[in-house]
Amino acid sequence: MGKNEKISPAVIRRLPKYYRYLGELSKVGVNKISSRELSDMTGFSASQIRQDLNNFGGFGQQGFGYDVENLRNEIGKILGLDKKYKIIIVGAGNIGQAIANYTGFYEADYEVVALFDKNPKLIGLSIRNALIMDSDDLEDFLEKEHIDIAVICTPKSVCQQVAEQLVRCGIRAIWNFAPKDLKMPEEVYVENVHLNESLFSLTYYYNKMKKESE
Amino acid sequence: MGKNEKISPAVIRRLPKYYRYLGELSKVGVNKISSRELSDMTGFSASQIRQDLNNFGGFGQQGFGYDVENLRNEIGKILGLDKKYKIIIVGAGNIGQAIANYTGFYEADYEVVALFDKNPKLIGLSIRNALIMDSDDLEDFLEKEHIDIAVICTPKSVCQQVAEQLVRCGIRAIWNFAPKDLKMPEEVYVENVHLNESLFSLTYYYNKMKKESE
DNA sequence: GAAAAATCGAGAATTTTTTAACAATATTTT
DNA sequence: AAAATATTGTTAAAAAATTCTCGATTTTTC
User: What span, in angstroms and rounded, lies between the C-alpha atoms of B112 and B101?
Assistant: First the structure.
């Protein structure tokens, strides 16, 4: 059974990767896997994989390994992928549209219900069944519809203000693509995708490698 | 002066954030900052900030703090943001186009030189001065032009093959948006932006908070 | 069916990362 | 100009994360 200690974020970050690899295995008909084999696939150590999984309970069987389909389901349940989620996207520019079109959503039961933007040229258009609505209608919309996750794809100049509006309307989970850290109350979880930071890290390692190979 | 010990990736991940905050300070005319104040802004502990910076040398002055503009420049140099980088994007679908339009590039001297795609409807179009070219011309292009960073925005079914082609043509830095881990030789650095993993983590914490608030 | 091999789960040991403590030094106050 | 305050850089301590070890259990081999 699940233990009630605090699980480290590093563990939680690895679970989606395990989930993905197990999905691939399942798809090609593999139904048994050892931590050693998962280690070879993922690059994490076998010990770490066992340790990670044991945070949530013993899913494996000594002498045998893990049942692929079962382990995948268990990790899915831990992450909450067995449930349905409704999403809105605020900011229907390039990133917002790309996210709306993102097929990764369909790996689990995420539904993009609507997008919001201020640009009159965009309002009224649809992306994969999701209508782009006027930002002014955001609050009304959130009063009527239950939304689980809001994605912020606005320019950074307005992201804080948009986030505060979302929180006022009851949103507790934000996926933030604006290159700024949102100041939010504790009861709101923000997952940042800061592309500039990612690119800058890449740049550091690119230069480091170039220097070393000289 | 820079010490030659191995710097932990966690440190490198924090540098872009320092850089961003220092840029904001600089823009509003602040020219002195203490680790304590930076701590309040960034959420990292003052001690950690000092420790991080001292990996690369003492940029501050005891009793005084750090000169904002100077520290920003130093971090910029560490990350390599004082140089120019040429980028190509392989896969001109939603994400590829969004990245091509991404204004975060212009914070430093990154230039998107071209995009590549197989879709005839896209080939010939331009995004912000960058032409979408036929994927078949990728290798020829890379022979003629020096490219620093390649961005992979293809479907996952072809990302490994594309990556291998890029590496054959001399690419050593890959920004990977395909939801798959690339198997690459050691001399290639891959920075992954796995949106599905990010969303799954968010989902975990969303559910955790919901449970706790019940 | 006994012996060998494989594998997990759990706790111990190790390594890495973060935080704390404080001497050294600069600035500000009186 | 002396005392008080602020702040860095560095070393030490603490905490966290990872790896190692090994008993328990299952499967495979002979």
Answer: 9
